[in-house]
Write a structure and sequence with these properties.
This protein is α/β, with parallel strands linked by helices and about 300 residues long. Helix 6 links the parallel strand 8 and strand 9. The two termini are about 20 Å apart. The structure holds iron/sulfur cluster (SF4). Iron/sulfur cluster binds next to loops.
């Protein structure tokens, strides 16, 4: 059975986030150099019902009933969620079954489409990315589908800001020497001032990226850049652990379902699953030995990723 729901996983911004995956692995309109999931295998702009809406809802209802603490239901996961043509219908149906807020993590590439913007209006929080504002840097960092124009995305996000009553947190992922030049940052700042998001989230390449040349900025550099964006700007802080009781029937499946979506550390898994690290480590060692997952080291931290 295909699993569309994962977590709840601890998220730096969303607390315990129950993830909903709306597209097959690496189905995306971009192929970002910093992507944690590896190279995009299906670069597309085609919007369709990639997975059956009905089955997603059945699994979601079950997950909601099993977990005591969910701060957000989050469309995210293995690719670009707005490529799923049922996203609007799903948000509407989720709103009928639970009061848990709905967040959409998106690369924003389809915001030039009026219909898509309309579909997201019932969400509580939308987190679009905007890593580049010139065509050249956009191509370098996001490696988009050939029909996408960054100018149209920016216009689309501005329109969405006017249409949408919920929260918009704009995420900017910076890679050293790629999109962090002063001239480019000044351009991003002036466009962000026009967009007027509720928050600006500065991020850098903190997890193993697709391309080795996608390098992180130092925290002092990010702190300096933060000043350019003003008071609504935050550097995304590390998640602070909280108590979470788990009801996972099968810890191995739960671990694999999280690692499938992104590389994680032992601490990430321990917080997410509410189990102590030594117990999880037994499963991780078993999965490594069986070749299901592998260990990668990135900036001094040990991550587990799918093999
Ligand atoms: S980071 Fe997001 S937008 Fe970029 S390639 Fe990966 S899934 Fe697509």
């Amino acid at each position: 059975m295909v699993e569309y729901i994962y977590g709840p996983v601890p998220s730096r911004r969303l607390g315990f986030s129950l993830g909903v995956d709306l597209v097959p692995f690496k189905t995306c309109s971009y192929d970002c150099i910093y992507c944690q999931l590896g190279k995009t295998t299906n670069k597309t702009l085609e919007r369709k019902e990639y997975f059956p809406e009905r089955e997603i809802l059945v699994q979601l209802k079950k997950a909601i009933s099993l977990h005591q603490k969910i701060d957000y239901i989050t469309f995210s996961g293995s690719g670009e969620p707005t490529l799923n043509s049922k996203i609007g219908s799903l948000i509407r149906k989720i709103k009928k079954i639970t009061k848990i807020p709905v967040a959409v993590l998106t690369n924003g590439s389809l915001f030039y489409q009026k219909e898509l913007r309309k579909e997201l209006l019932l969400a509580d929080l939308v987190i679009p990315s905007l890593d580049a504002v010139t065509p050249e840097i956009f191509r370098k960092v996001n490696r988009p589908h050939s029909l996408i124009k960054v100018e149209e995305i920016i216009e689309g996000i501005k329109k969405f800001r006017k249409e949408f009553k919920g929260l918009i947190w704009l995420e900017i992922m910076l890679a050293k020497g790629v999109n962090d030049g002063k001239e480019h940052l000044d351009k991003i700042v002036s466009i962000v001032q026009e967009i007027k998001p509720d928050k600006i989230h500065l991020n850098t390449v903190v997890r193993p990226p697709t391309e080795k040349f996608a390098l992180p900025l130092f925290s002092e550099e990010l702190s300096e850049i933060k000043k350019l964006f003003g008071k609504n700007c935050e550097i995304i802080a590390e998640f602070k652990p909280r108590e979470q009781k788990t009801y996972s029937e099968d810890l191995k499946t739960a671990i694999l379902s999280i690692i499938k979506r992104r590389p994680v550390s032992l601490l990430d898994l321990s917080i997410s699953l509410g189990k102590n690290q030594s117990e999880i480590l037994k499963y991780l060692d078993f999965l490594v030995q069986n070749g299901k997952i592998k260990v990668v080291h990135y900036h001094g931290i040990k991550y587990y990723e799918i093999n």
